[in-house]
Design goal:
Elements lengths: L7 H11 L3 E5 L2 E4 H17 L7 E5 L4 H11 L4 E4 L6 H11 L1 E7 L18 E5 L8 E2 H6 L16 E7 L7 E6 H14 L7 E4 L6 H12 L3 E4 L5 H11 L3 E4 L1 H14 L8 E5 L5 H11 L2 E7 L6 E4 L11 H8 L4 E2 L3 E6 L14 E7 L5 E2 L3 H7 E2 L2 E10 L5 E6 L4 E3 L2 E3 L1 H8 L5 E11 L3 E10 L7 H11 L8 E4 L13 H11 L11
Length: 532
Amino acid sequence: MNVPLILTDFLDRAVSLYGSKEAIYCDDRTFTYSELNERVNRLSHGLKELGIEKGDRVAYLAPNSVEMLEGFYGIYQLGAIMVPLNIRLKPDDYLFILDHSESKVLFVDQDLYPLIVPIKDKLKTVTSIIVHYKDEETDEIGYDEWLSKQSNQTFERAILDENDVCSLLYTSGTTGNPKGVMLTHRNNYLHALTSMHHLRVSDKDTLVHVLPMFHVNGWGSPFYYTANGASQVCLRKATPETIFYAIEKYKATILHMAPTVLNALMQFYEQNLPVIEHDVRVVIAGSAPPPAFVTRVERELGWEFIQVYGMTESSPLSTISTIRSHLRKLPMKEQYRLKAKAGYPMIGTRVSVVNDLGEEVAHDGKAIGEVVVRGNGVMLGYWKNEQATMETIRDGWLHTGDMGTVDEYGMVDIVDRKKDVIISGGENISSIEVEGVLYEHPDVLEAAVIAAPHEKWGETPHAFVVLREGRTITEQELIAFSREKLAHFKAITGVTFVPELPKTASGKIQKVHLRNDYWEQKGKVSAGKFVN
C-alpha cells in the first residue's frame, strides 16, 4: 500500500527519534521536539475551535520564530493551507492577499500588527486575528494565553492526499497584483528529500533561520531540518551581530541567505573579526556572485560556499553548484568560478536552457536561452489564475523568465532576468556580469546595474552603487574601472551613488524599482522593461 507524502511525517519522525533533544531556540526560550509537538497540537485544537477545516487558508505575518515554525505543522494537521505573508509589504498589499486567498485566521507578530490596523475593518474573510508577543495596548487575542487554553493531546488529523495544496505563497509582482503559488504536500516533501541530500543535512546540524520562513518556507528548511532532528535557531531579527552571535552560541553549522546578507556578514567580519572555529556551510541563492566573492568566503571566513538556484514556483530549489568529484582535479580558481554559478540539476529535477524555438542551446557557456524546469517541485499552479498558470507552465516545463548559459560541465549560469537584460546597439549585456566587475573594486560595497535610455545605442548600463564606509570614488573613475575590465559596450556609462539599495525581505536587490524610477525621471517608458 502506498503511503502518501504528507509533511506532518517530518515532525512525527523528529518526535519519535529526537523527542527529548533540545532542538528549537527562540529568543531566550528552548524547546525539545516533544515540547514543540505539544504546542503544535494545541495550535491545531485551537484552530479547529475557530472553525478551521480542511482546505481553509490560515495566514501568518511574522518573522522567524517558534510561533511561525509550529504554524506549518499545526495548520497541516487540519489539512488547512498556510499563507505566509512577506513582512515588507504595505497594508493594501495585505488586504489584497488576505481577501484573494480568502484567509479565515490571521496570526500576526506584535511588531507587525500596525501594518494590519489600517485594513482590518476592510477584510472580507478574516474572522480572527491572533497576535504573537501581544502587548497590553493591542485589542486582539493574545497567542500565548490562547494557546495555553488548548489541549495538548494528540490531534485527530484530516485525511490528506499528497497532491493537496499545503502552502499558498504570494510572489511580489513588478506590475499588477501578486500571484498565489500553490505548492502541494508532494511538492514540498520531495523537495525536502532532494535538498537534505544535496546539502548533506543530518542530526548533527544546527540551522540558523536567517532566510525568512515566509520566503517559500525558508527554502523548505522547516521541513527537512525537522525531519533530520537537526537543531534550529529562530532569529526574529537577523542582523550581522545577531547572526554571528547565534553561530557562536549554538555552534551553528549551516545558514541559508541571500547574497546581500552574506555581503553584510563579510563586512561585519572584517570590522570585528569574530572567532568561529567550527565548520559552517552557507547556502546562497540569488544573483550569481563573482568568483572572487566565493574565494573570500571560503578563505577568509573558512566557510563552505554553496550556491543554489530556484524560484517559488519550483518549491524552490532546482540546481546546486557544489563541485562534483571528477571535477576536483580542476585548479582552485576554476572551481571557485564553477561554485559561483547556479549549478547542475538536483535529483528529481530536469533543467534545460532553451532558445525561442524551444531548442536546447549549445553547452559552450556562451549561447543564451531561457531556463526551464520540470520535476517534482513544479507548482500546481497559480491560485485563481489559470491564464498565468498556462503562460508559465507550457508542455510540462516551468518557464522561469531567467536567462542563462550552460558550460561544458553542464553547469547552468544565470546571466539575467529577461527583463533585466540590457540591449545596447543590438548586443545583449548581462547586468549580473557588469555587477560582478563592480564588486571587484575595493571601494564598492553593493552595486546594481540597470538599462539606461540612450539616444544612439537604445540602452546602456547604468550603475547604482553603495560605497564602503569612509571611501570615496568619482563616477568617472568607476566608469574607467569598468572599461578596463569589460568590453567597452558592456561598461557602465553612468553611476548613481546611493546610501542603500531597495531590497526584498529576503535581501534580494529590487532592480525593478531602480529601473522604473530612473526611466520615469528621464521621461521615457520602455514597455519591455515593465513586464512582470
